[in-house]
Structures are given as structure tokens and as C-alpha cells.
Design goal:
This protein is mainly alpha-helical and 124 residues long. The protein is built from six helices and three strands, in the order H-E-E-E-H-H-H-H-H. Helix 4 packs across helix 5. The structure holds zinc ion (ZN).
């Protein structure tokens, strides 16, 4: 059996589901994975582009469609506007912690490989 393609980011819900199959449970688990919750109680199935109300780990309420949150990585605009507190936010938001960790991975650049090989010195 071949290995499955590694998933780089966990979005906190069953990504095998189509958006039209998402339910309040998927929205709830995605919100929970970000340290927050869904405030809207009554939502029709399949209405994934219609904004609903969410609350982040810091108590900010905001509107966003499930599609924005689950597939586009959208989350609390008030927290997003406060980069100085990203490490505090990451302590309560596993999804953000994952993004920060990914951003801090060392990157191997072409320039780094070139300098490791050393400059080419033509012999006299
Ligand atoms: Zn917030």
C-alpha cells in the first residue's frame, strides 16, 4: 500500500469532506482547533459561503463564512491586527502555533548551496 501524501497543515476538520457536506460539527471542531467556538446556532447544511458568527480564544466575536475559516485560514480580525501578541495567541490557538512553527523551519536556498560549494577560482 503506497504512503499517503503527507498533509502539511492540519485544519482541524475532516478535509475529505466536500464543503456541501460540512455540518455544524465540522465548524465547531475547526473553531475549537483555533481555541474558539461557533456562536451561530441555526445554520442550514450546505450554506458554507454564508457568514456565521464565531468567537476567538480572546473573546472577540466576528462574522466569517465557514469556507473562509475552514479553507482560507481566515480567523479573528482583531487578533490578526495584533502581531505583537501572536505568541500569546499561539498558546491558545493550535492552528496558529502550527503556522508559526512552519514559518520558522530553516529554508534551504540556492544561495546557501552555492556558498557551501565555494566560489569557483580559475587556476592560473
Ligand atoms: Zn481575537
Amino acid at each position: 500500500m503506497p504512503d499517503r501524501t503527507p498533509v502539511l497543515l492540519d485544519h482541524g476538520y475532516d478535509e475529505a469532506k466536500k464543503p456541501s457536506e460540512w455540518t455544524a460539527t465540522d465548524y465547531g471542531s475547526a473553531a475549537e482547533f483555533r481555541g474558539g467556538q461557533v456562536l451561530t446556532q441555526d445554520m442550514a447544511p450546505g450554506q458554507f459561503t454564508k457568514p456565521i458568527e464565531w468567537r476567538c480564544a480572546f473573546g472577540h466575536a466576528f462574522d466569517a463564512s465557514p469556507r473562509l475559516v475552514l479553507t482560507a485560514g481566515h480567523w479573528c480580525p482583531a487578533c490578526l491586527a495584533d502581531p505583537a501578541s501572536y505568541s500569546d495567541q499561539a498558546a491558545r490557538n493550535p492552528f496558529l502555533a502550527q503556522l508559526i512553527q512552519a514559518a520558522e523551519q530553516p529554508v534551504h536556498t540556492a544561495a546557501a548551496s552555492a556558498s557551501a560549494a565555494g566560489p569557483s577560482q580559475p587556476k592560473p
